[in-house]
Amino acid sequence: METLRFTYEGGRPAPGRAPEISGVLGSGNLEVLVEPAESSGTLHIEVTTAAVGFGRIWQAVLDDFFARWPLANVRISINDAGATPAVVSLRLDQALEAYTTGGTPS
């Protein structure tokens, strides 16, 4: 197992108030927890993954995510079981849509 931590600055506070979880922890998939945080305008992301040695790929995927969702005062926790970058992006989008709208994404 490997734990990776990423911090982004310069985002906007997200409208979500209650924690939201998306996805399932299973082979080739992941779960994403999004929750409000008192973080002085930053977005913190922690990734726990079974696939060791893919830090650069995680960095690229999360950089792209932050370009699409420039959030602040949010913490995201990811439990990964070997998901591909496309699945990671999909689950992050689902989790943020639910978090910002207050319900399950359509």
What does this structure look like?
It is a single chain. The protein has a single domain (2-102), classed as Ribosomal Protein S5, domain 2 (2-Layer Sandwich). Strands 1-5-7-4-3 form a 5-stranded mixed beta sheet, with helices on one face. The chain has a two-stranded parallel sheet with strand order 2-6. 27% of the residues are buried. It has 106 residues and is α/β, with parallel strands linked by helices. Helices cover 29% and strands 36% of the residues.
Form type: globular
Number of domains: 1
Binned, the helix content reads: 25-40%
CATH architecture, please? 2-Layer Sandwich
Helix-strand category = alpha/beta
State the name of the first-level CATH class: Alpha Beta
Assembly context of the chains: single chain
The parts where pLDDT drops under 50 for at least 5 residues are none
- What is the CA–CA distance across the termini? 33 Å
Radius of gyration: 13 Å
H and E order? EEEEEHEEH
Count of helical stretches: 2
Strand order of the largest sheet: 1-5-7-4-3
Mean pLDDT: 91
The total count of strands amounts to 7
